[in-house]
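Deliverable D5.2: sample structural annotation.
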Amino acid sequence: MSEQQPSAALGTWVRVEEKGTDEQETYHIVESAEAELLENKIPVGSPLAQALIGKQPGDEVAIAGPNGKVNFSVLEVGKN
C-alpha cells in the first residue's frame, strides 16, 4: 500500500510552478506572527495560503493577482 501524499497545511512548505513558465517557488505556510514575505514565509490567512491549503502534488491552483489570474501546479509538499 502506498503512503498518502501530504497536503498543504499550516507548518508545511509547498513548491509550486507557475503554469506556462519554468518559474518555481517554495512557500512556507506559517502563523501570521512568523510571516516573512522576503523569505517566502506566507501567513496562513493570506489568499495564497488559503488557496494552497489541502492541496497535494499534482493539484492545480488559481490565484487572483494584480494582473489577472495566475495558475500554479503543486509540485511538492513537505513539513517545515
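Annotation notes: The two ends are 26 Å apart (CA to CA). The chain is about 10% helix and 45% strand.
The annotation will be released with the project's public dataset once the embargo ends.
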